[in-house]
Design a protein that fits this description.
Layout: E1 7-16, E2 19-24, E3 34-45, E4 51-68, E5 71-75, E6 123-126
Antiparallel strand pairs: 1-2, 1-6, 2-5, 3-4, 3-6, 4-5
């Protein structure tokens, strides 16, 4: 079952390389909550041509650091872990994507400009 993700608002200002301002009327947000910055990609259609909507392209996952009336401030935090080679219990587990068994002729890549770059006007939703 998919989690319902509510659109909160849009990026209205980039304060510095680590912090953005998001305009929102949502009143149940709190410091520490996580949000996603995203844009809408290509329209996805079923095999019979019915529109299924546009594919959301996630640009980043951010944490709310301040909640004000009408807007929130969000930043990205990077967690770094230290691995001690002396204990196998402290080793880091890494999961990577692996290729699917697909027909390469059926590949249709997304066409999205500024895919990873956060810009004013990007949408923000709950995680």
């Amino acid at each position: 079952m998919l989690k319902n993700r509510k659109e909160l608002g849009k990026v209205i200002r980039i304060l510095n390389p680590t912090t953005i301002v998001v305009e929102t009327s949502e009143t149940r947000l709190k410091t520490g909550d996580f949000v996603e910055v995203y844009t809408l990609g290509d329209e996805l259609k079923s095999l019979d041509g019915k529109s299924l909507g546009r594919i959301p392209i996630i640009k980043d996952k951010l944490q709310i650091i301040q909640v004000e009336n009408g807007y929130i401030l969000c930043s990205k935090y990077k967690e770094q872990k230290t691995i001690f080679a002396t204990s196998p219990l402290l080793e880091k587990k890494t999961v990577t994507k692996t290729d699917l068994n697909i027909n390469a002729d059926d590949i249709e890549p997304l066409t999205v400009s500024q895919k990873d770059t956060i810009v004013r006007g990007d949408r923000v939703r709950t995680v």
